[in-house]
Amino acid sequence: MKKRVLQFIGSFHQGGTERQAVSLARLLHSDATYDVHVATLNKEGILLDEIEVLGLPVIEEFKLTSFYNANFVSQVRLCSSYLRANKIDVVHTHDFYTNVFGMAAATLAGIPVRIASKRETGAMRTPGQDFVEKLAFGRADAIVVNAAAVREHLIERSVSKAKIHVIYNGLDLSRFLTKVADKASIAARFGLPADNDAKFITLVANLRHSVKNIPMLLRAAKTVVRTMPNAHFVIAGEGELGPRLRAISSELGIEENVHFIGGCADVPALLAASDICVLTSTAEGFSNSILEYMAAGKPVVATKVGGAAEAIADGASGYLISSDDDVALAARLKGLLSDAEKAESFGLEGRKIVTEKFSQDSRLAETLKLYGDLLDGRKS
């Protein structure tokens, strides 16, 4: 009888963590070594359709209002009962909230194998949250991180080195082979200027966390459009910071050149029509967006945080700049916009790196090995 693996996903909104968790569930289901179940804290978001088409068992939702009230305890007990009733063998959580909740429920249920995840190097959590998450890591048999930089961050926090496993993000590269037959028509789909002379600088990120530091991009945009009025900045993402970011673009007088398109259901098409892609975070684990940019064959300019340097070959597939340095960002963007040959060369090199190092096959194989090793260890 197959072992049963539960992927615990925080929500189905379009963030890097969510996309990678959904992708892993799909890979495991297709591989068929394990029976795959999915649970969530919030059954909302544009990625939900990608899970529902797989025909998995019903996705259970465990809504939380806080970690510190009776509802949390009640939901943990409900989840524990769900895990026992479905005879789950492995619980794999994917972010801060599911780590804390899922490890508590899995421990109460006596689940044989418990795997947590960490995808950022800091700055997103309060000291209290870090403490609570460390307790969750104590309940885990393994912690999956998506970059060596995250591994070092956890070791510095005195998390057991033996528990930490680096498994890089993986991409379905075939999704990013979109050819631009008519850039203007793709742009029109997203409400962008339908002008073949327009140059699109794209950032794909959630608008829920200030750590993404999108104001840095907006300040750089002001500098760029001053001399390159055909440059347009595309921000694809959803979240509560959206209204404030729109207000900042207006205050900077660049609202005509900045386009907030919301959650994007077709990132490959958006990237196909883009000229340069950026990441401006002050902290990251390993950015899924960077890999998507590179898979689409686009030059990347990113802040040197987290695992960015593990993907981008500085000066060959893109540029790494200091955190919050909008002057350097603007200079690199203007340089690439002015040198189409270099931009194309960077894009080709990025595609090569992703193909060799960050495939879905590699991620699946390493995940299956981890599950198997942990289950075998429990047997013995």
Walk me through this protein's architecture.
This protein is of the alpha/beta class. 45% of the residues lie in helices and 16% in strands. The chain is built from 15 helices and 13 strands. It has helices at 16-31, 48-52, 70-85, 96-109, 127-139, 148-156, 183-189, 214-227, 242-251, 267-272, 288-295, 308-311, 326-337, 340-357, 360-379, and strands at residues 4-9, 35-40, 60-61, 90-93, 113-118, 142-145, 164-166, 199-204, 231-236, 258-262, 276-279, 300-303, 318-321. The strands form 2 sheets. It has a 7-stranded parallel β-sheet with strand order 3-2-1-4-5-6-7, sandwiched between helices. It has a 6-stranded parallel β-sheet with strand order 10-9-8-11-12-13, with helices on both faces. β5 (113-118), α5 (127-139) and β6 (142-145) form a beta-alpha-beta unit. The radius of gyration is 21 Å and the shape is globular. It starts with a strand and ends with a helix. The model has no long low-confidence stretch (mean pLDDT 93).
Question: Any chance you could write out the topology, listing elements then pairs?
Answer:
Layout lengths: L3 E6 L6 H16 L3 E6 L7 H5 L7 E2 L8 H16 L4 E4 L2 H14 L3 E6 L8 H13 L2 E4 L2 H9 L7 E3 L16 H7 L9 E6 L9 H14 L3 E6 L5 H10 L6 E5 L4 H6 L3 E4 L8 H8 L4 E4 L4 H4 L6 E4 L4 H12 L2 H18 L2 H20 L1
Parallel strand pairs: 1-2, 1-4, 2-3, 4-5, 5-6, 6-7, 8-9, 8-11, 9-10, 11-12, 12-13
Helix pairs in contact: 3-4, 4-5, 8-13, 11-14
Q: Structural class of the helices, strands and pairings?
A: alpha/beta
Low-confidence stretches: none
Number of strands: 13
pLDDT averaged residue by residue: 93
* Percent range for β-strand residues: 15-25%
Helix content: 40-55%
Q: What general form does the structure show? A: globular
Main β-sheet, spatial strand arrangement = 3-2-1-4-5-6-7
Radius of gyration, CA atoms, in whole angstroms: 21 Å
Describe the biggest sheet?
A: 7 strands, parallel
* Spatial separation of the terminal alpha carbons: 19 Å
> How many helices in DSSP terms?
15
Please write the string of helix (H) and strand (E) elements: EHEHEHEHEHEHEHEHEHEHEHEHEHHH
